[in-house]
Prior knowledge:
Elements: E1 2-9, E2 14-20, H1 23-32, E3 44-52, H2 55-66, H3 71-80
Antiparallel strand pairs: 1-2, 1-3
Amino acid sequence: MYYCYILYSAKLDKYYIGSTSDIEGRLSRHNSSGKGFTSTGKPWVLKYFEKYPEKSQAIKREYELKRWKDRIFLEALITKGSGHPG
Length: 86
């Protein structure tokens, strides 16, 4: 199973979109890494995810969401979404 996910950083007030096959492990790495964009926004919180059977589908959805330039669309997806973790 593969996932497209959205993380949120209250520190930066920003969202991060990615894809992975290990959602818990990936979140842990985002919150423990000392380099890259996500290192400045810790702690990151998982706000939303979608499951896909194929890696290519998760990556396609990741790029689709990244093209949404207005955060209002992401926030609507998070509020409505079936993959919302809680």
